[in-house]
Design a protein that fits this description.
By secondary structure, this protein is α/β, with parallel strands linked by helices. Among the domains are: 7-124, Rossmann fold; 130-235 and 253-276, no CATH class. It has helices at 7-14, 30-37, 49-57, 59-64, 81-91, 105-115, 130-133, 143-149, 153-157, 162-181, 187-198, 207-214, 218-230, 259-265, 280-298, 343-350, 353-357, and strands at 19-23, 43-45, 70-73, 98-102, 120-124, 203-204, 234-237, 253-256, 305-309, 315-322, 325-332, 364-369, 375-376, 381-384. A hairpin with a 4-residue loop joins strand 13 and strand 14. The radius of gyration is 22 Å and the shape is globular.
């Protein structure tokens, strides 16, 4: 097992709260991380039929086997267990006794909010960030390889072919879990919907267009997208809103958490296909945005991210809020360092001039590109794709 960036935050939570709830997609490494960090805790998974039946039929006796606590995996399989856990925790609120994991965010958090409010900290473990991927002996070297491989740990731990593993992942987990999250009758239509979403990653989310292309209603499209968000497959990035005297776009943008999965859904079967693929730009943008999202989640700070676009086409792919001000991030798949890469973000930066005259600092500008040179320019920072983690928590002046 490689060190995971979330580990310090998980240790901090276990030192303060009697229950820690760790959610994330299937195969993101939740079980491996928890068993490594809490080796003295008994481990049980509710994926096992006998353990699940025990937890459902007699939850008090199930929990009584662990007087000092335990790691309970896939706890959403027996949500009623949490009500009984509440009483146990109230009697003995010693921190770090109970470590719960689950792969279905919405279903799990609903149960947690009802039964364990004020008693648990909730953390998310998403697929690997680039800094974690590099800790494996066999890891991608080129940008296209990084996008194609994605970030599921088993691919790198066992040196597997990403396409073969992801094909099995879709069939084994996404399609199966869909049936437990939502009553989706037409699985073939849902598969098409997921593929259409992959084709829209890094783009504005237009429910009408998405529903029309899939042949479903808008309410169905919204419900199915919630399923993808619940399973940590996709997420929505909100539009930036501020009083800048500009007509800003309000609809969110759609992104996949893992570009490897998005590539597989789009029929991309080798990294070389990304060099000339029509979605190379949006896929690279997805990789960059998801990297920053994951870095912030690993620090327990998932918010503070949006994108900027007005009705006249001025756009910044990412707006990062920090105590020092805003950072505008533009993403360009080009490998050539050129001044033209800054034009879009500089245009948006000019929209903040009135606010700057009122005493607020002008946003800083950074461009993430496919090249390898880190450069400080008058217009802003030019950041190679390998160094994208440096933008997750920007500080003014570099």
């Amino acid at each position: 097992m490689i060190p995971r960036d979330l580990a310090p935050e998980l240790a901090r939570a276990a030192a303060q709260a009697p229950v820690v709830t760790l959610t994330g997609p299937r195969q993101s490494g939740k079980t491996t991380l928890c068993r490594a960090m809490f080796p003295d805790h008994p481990y049980r998974t509710l994926e096992a039929l006998d353990e699940r039946a025990f937890a459902l039929d007699d939850p008090l006796r199930f929990l009584a086997r662990f007087p000092k606590g335990a790691v309970i995996d896939e706890v959403q399989r027996a949500p009623g267990l949490l009500s009984y856990l509440q009483g146990i925790v109230d009697e003995d609120p010693a921190p770090g006794r109970w470590i719960l994991t689950g792969s279905q965010n919405l279903a799990l958090l609903q149960s947690v909010s009802q039964s364990l409010a004020g008693r648990t900290e909730v953390l998310n473990l998403l697929p690997l960030v680039w800094e974690e991927v590099k800790r494996f002996d066999h890891h991608p070297v080129r940008m296209e390889e990084a996008m194609f491989s994605g970030g599921y740990p088993r691919i790198f731990d066992r040196h597997l072919d990403p396409s073969r593993w992801l094909r099995s992942y879709v069939a084994t987990y996404i399609e199966r879990d869909v049936r437990t999250i939502s009553n989706i009758g037409d699985l073939v239509m849902f598969q098409r919907f997921v593929q259409l979403c992959a084709g829209r990653t890094g783009q504005l989310l237009n429910y009408s267009s998405l529903a029309g292309d899939c042949g479903i209603s808008q309410p169905t499209a919204k419900a199915w997208l919630s399923v993808l968000e619940t399973s940590f497959i996709a997420f929505r990035l909100p539009a930036f809103h501020a009083n800048l005297r500009k007509r800003l776009v309000k609809m969110p943008k759609l992104y996949f958490h893992d570009t490897g999965l998005a590539c597989w859904l789009l029929g991309i079967r080798e990294p070389g296909q990304l060099q000339s693929h029509p979605l190379r730009g949006p896929m690279f943008e997805t990789w960059v945005v998801s990297e920053i999202v994951k870095h912030r989640m690993n620090r327990g700070e998932p918010g503070g991210l949006s994108f900027y676009r007005d009705r006249n086409g001025a756009e910044a792919d990412l707006v990062i809020e920090s105590p020092d001000g805003l950072t505008l991030v533009e993403v360009k798949a080009s490998e050539t360092a050129a001044a033209s890469l800054f034009r879009g973000a500089e245009r948006v930066r000019g929209h903040f001039a009135d606010a700057a005259r009122g005493g607020l600092p002008l946003p800083e500008v950074a461009v993430v590109y496919g090249g390898g040179d880190l450069q400080e320019r008058t217009a802003g920072r030019l950041v190679p794709w390998r160094h994208v983690s440096e933008l997750a928590f920007p500080r003014r002046g570099g």
